[in-house]
Amino acid sequence: MEISSLCRRWLEFAADDLTAAKHLLSLYPFRLEIICYHCEQSAEKMLKAFLLMHDEEAPRIHDLGELCRLCALKDKGFDGIAEDCSRLTPFGVRVRYPEEIEVTEADMHKAIKSADHIMDFITHAMTEEQHEAQEQGMTME
Fold first, then answer.
1. What whole-number distance in Å separates Cα of residue 31 and Cα of residue 45?
2. Which residue, 99, 90, 4, 79, is CA-closest to 44?
3. Which pLDDT score, from 0 to 100, does residue 138 have?
4. Residues in Cβ contact with 139 at an 8 Å cutoff, skipping those fewer than 6 apart
5. What does the H/E/C string look like for the chain?
6. Per-residue CA distances from 86 to 4, 73, 92 (Å)
7. For each successive 10 residues of the chain (141 residues), what is the average pLDDT?
8. Mean pLDDT for the chain?
């Protein structure tokens, strides 16, 4: 199973968002909301890339729980990242507005950990599927 060029772009953007979140930690004072937002964006793009790899549309939603549920229809292992997805979902929209959400430093560290976990899980799942498809002689564009 090969990953399409569109799927690769989603994966690159996801990696860029997570890199940006971690880079913002080096700036002082850092904006907790912006770091959490990039963590949510990274996870959202990873989930959508997984769906694209399976010839599914990347829905125009920001609910990571729903995206995770859609991915779990393809791979039950996604149930293992459902809590991380739920933790990050509020940071996709609500942190864009000053009065919407209060973010603590502990929330920020959990967001980074959750985004890392989601990135690692999906990267591993996609790699495993590619290997299985190669063993079966299949490709997917």
1. 22
2. 90
3. 57
4. 1, 2, 133
5. CCCCHHHHHHHHHHHHHHHHHHHHCCCCCCCHHHHHHHHHHHHHHHHHHHHHHCCCCCCCCCCHHHHHHHHHCCCHHHHHHHHHHHHHHHHHCHHHCCCCCCCCHHHHHHHHHHHHHHHHHHHHHHHHHHHHHHHCCCCCC
6. 28, 17, 11
7. 83 98 91 94 98 93 96 96 97 75 91 98 93 73 45
8. 91
Predicted local distance difference test score (pLDDT) of residue 15: 98
- Distance between CA atoms of residues 104 and 108, nearest Å: 6
Residue 141's pLDDT is: 45
- CA 72, CA 138: separation in Å to the nearest integer? 22
Whole-angstrom distance, CA of residue 12 vs CA of residue 29: 27
